[in-house]
Design goal:
The chain is α+β, with helices and mostly antiparallel strands and 288 residues long. Among the domains are: 115 residues; 85 residues, no CATH class. Strands 1-2-3-4-5 form a five-stranded antiparallel beta sheet, with helices on one face.
Length: 288
């Protein structure tokens, strides 16, 4: 529109210049218009010019409005772009933080898995050691006479050991099925240590008990038994005519009749009861 604004005066100037360069010649005779017709032509020309100027002004107004709207839209779009860019930056930071936390969690998980593997390996070794200890303790407990076992309440500790063994078997079954299960260790060792302590108290001491033995003719009789620790034992009946020795065997105590030691065993019993004077005895013993 600005180009048209400047081109129009230039066109008029060019026309005027060309008119000035034409050789002078007498204008053709034009019949004079009536005054009313000339006035009418001037009015029509004025109206067209006014209409053209109005259209030009409206066009300029629209151009200004569209330019203003474009500037406002451009500013709004720029703000939205900046907002989106800020949100993208924030999301990227959150993603980076999430990746970092994921890596840290994975590293910690790997460390925990390695630590768990070490614990399981150690627990396996400890349980293997407990297996050998438990077998030895059960073997020793089997050698403890029933009367002494009741006195020391070994049955309670044995029951604890049995419960621990049952729990361990169930845990191993769960592990074999692919399920995580902790094998109990503490309760097992508590029972083992308790039994070892009680057996050690029995081993170096003399213990007296009243038990039943069969006579050569098959009749049963009460005898007094003196246990020397868990390695040797001697017995004699009240009449003093039935005596013998005992040794621990694979299936419990094994008894051998030896009536010749009856008097010496009676003397040992008196010393154990603190009713006799200490002295040296020559009693048979088997050392393995």
């Amino acid at each position: 529109m600005n180009s048209l604004r400047f081109a129009f005066p230039l066109l008029l100037s060019g026309i005027a210049l060309l008119s000035a360069q034409q050789p002078a010649s007498p204008p053709p005779a034009v019949p004079a218009k009536p005054a009313a017709a000339a006035a009418k032509d001037d009015t029509v020309s004025y109206e067209k010019t006014r209409e053209t100027l109005q259209k030009w002004a409206e066009t300029e107004k629209r151009i200004m409005e569209e330019r203003r709207d474009w500037d406002e839209g451009k500013a709004l779009l720029k703000g939205q772009i900046e907002l989106v860019n800020g949100q993208i930056t924030e999301l990227e930071a959150k993603l980076a933080d999430a990746r970092k936390r994921k890596e840290e969690a994975l590293k910690k998980k790997q460390e925990m898995a390695a630590e768990k593997a070490l614990i399981l390996e150690a627990a396996t070794d400890v349980n293997k050691m407990a297996d050998s200890l438990e077998a030895a303790v059960r073997s020793a407990v089997a050698m403890v006479p029933e009367a002494i076992s009741k006195e020391k309440k070994l049955d309670i500790l044995v029951a604890q050991l049995d419960a621990s063994a049952k729990a361990r078997a169930e845990a191993l079954k769960e592990q074999a099925a692919g399920r995580e299960k902790v094998i109990p260790i503490a309760s097992r060792y508590q029972a083992i240590v308790g039994l070892i302590d009680q057996v050690n108290q029995v081993y170096p001491l003399l213990h007296k008990a009243v038990e039943t033995r069969k006579l050569p003719d098959g009749r049963e009789t009460n005898v007094t038994v003196v246990y020397v620790g868990l390695g040797q034992a001697y017995f004699v009946n009240l009449a003093g005519d039935f005596a013998g020795t005992g040794r621990p065997g694979p299936n419990g105590w094994e008894w051998t009749t030896n009536n010749a030691i009856a008097r010496d065993v009676d003397d040992v019993i008196e010393i154990v009861d603190k009713s006799g004077s200490p002295k040296v005895f020559a009693l048979p013993a088997t050392v393995k």
